[in-house]
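This part of the workshop introduces the protein records we will be handling. The question running through the whole workshop is how a given chain folds. To make this concrete, we reproduce a full record directly below:
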Amino acid sequence: MKKILIVLGILAVIVIGGLILLFSSLDRIVAAGIERFGSMATQTEVKVSSVTLKLKSGEGSVKGLHIGNLSGFTSSDAFTLGDISIKIDPSTVTKDVVVIDRIFISKPHVIYEINDSGQSNINVIKENIKQLQGKSAPEAAREEEKGMSAVKLLIRQLEIEGGQIDVYVPVRPEPMTAKMPPVKLSNLGSGGEPPGEIAARILSALVKNVGPAVAQVGVEQYLGKSVEEMKGRMQKQIDEKAGEAVEGLSKEAGKALNKFLGK
């Protein structure tokens, strides 16, 4: 009995030691996961400054999350996400499906850029995300064989608020700005999904609200057009406004002349 108790005591120490090691390295594991799966979803470089997770409460935060821009565009980032707070169910960390009760993203900053050929960086990233979400089961299995984590995730609630979008067009010296509508989604990855798919879902939700927001500033007139076409369209608008102003002045002058002549 004494020997059994000793063995059980040793096993308990090993298990406890393993859990301590797991949670002590959890910050690094999560940061690496965000960078890896975020980069896979967007096909751009994703970087995180820091991840902090508290074992007892399951609370955490992500700081300095940058989603890089694509080749052919000038700005260094396509997205910079402000403070991200996370609430995890600690009891699920060692299970097959890790439950994230809430992710709250505050004040994301989106750089919506149209290049010289009229192509939008956000639209390209959107297509990259769609490609990942549309992968077949055999492709997903091959990626698992390459070392992707078998752990699955479930997000109970995702909220994104206070987003700002800066729209850059080659023919305009200053960016146009738009506010991004808030995002509220529930049960992402119902039943548990791989981290890559969850990353794609979060980014897809973020990108989805960019389109309607930038439409309000008239960005469609520049999409799919070369710089020369953009310049021609802008010049036409300037000429039309100038013509309207001249016409307005002529009407006012005519009214004044008629008044002077007593007509």
Q: What stands out?
A: The two ends are 120 Å apart (CA to CA).
